[in-house]
Amino acid sequence: MTTLALTAAQVAEFLSREFPQVSDNFVIDRITPEETVVRMVIDERHLRPGGTVSGPAMFALADISFYVAILARIGPIGLAVTTNANIDFLRKPAAGVDLVATATLLKVGKVLAVGEAHIRNPGSPDVVARASMTYSIPPRGER
Fold it and tell me: Does residue 108 form part of some domain?
């Protein structure tokens, strides 16, 4: 069984201290060994013309949810960074409603972590965007 290195509260405290620009918009709803759920509080700055959530905002949610999942698994390693990301925008999300990303780690190795994030409107089974992510994990001497 996979164990977690950090709880949701510990990851939130780490982000607040080390990555404060993230803590205003994102809320960690749940962390389990199987998945991490992060909510993005949507406001006017996240909307694009046409009244929908912008692609860059959804990408940020996918990236942060995956980062949170990695931190929960490996501990407070600030230098874990995105090395590859692909996102598919599948349908228009509801405007004026928060978005939720569920991140799943498919493989966590010594130097790379690979997984996915599915973004939905809360309570909806429909995925509005799907991202595949790869993160680089720094060697132990560089953490």
Answer: yes
Beta-carbon count within 10 A of 93 CB:
23
**pLDDT of 81-132, one tens digit each?**
999 999 999 999 987 899 999 999 999 999 999 999 999 999 999 999 999 9
What's the whole-model pTM score?
0.94
Instruction: Identify whether 41 is part of a domain.
Output: yes
Q: Say how many Å lie between the first and final Cα of the chain, rounded.
A: 25
The 3-state DSSP class for residue 43 equals coil
Q: Give the C-alpha distances (Å, rounded to integers) separating 78 from 7, 57, 59, 113, 136.
A: 16, 22, 19, 14, 11
CA distance 132 to 127: 14
Question: Range of 105's domain?
Answer: 8-142
Q: Please name the residue that has the structure tokens 């407070």.
A: 76
Instruction: Let me know if residue 43 belongs to a domain.
Output: yes
**Residue 102, domain member (yes or no):** yes
Q: Residue 103: give its domain's CATH number.
A: 3.10.129.10
Number of structural domains found in the chain: 1
Note whether 115 and 104 are within 8 A (CB): yes
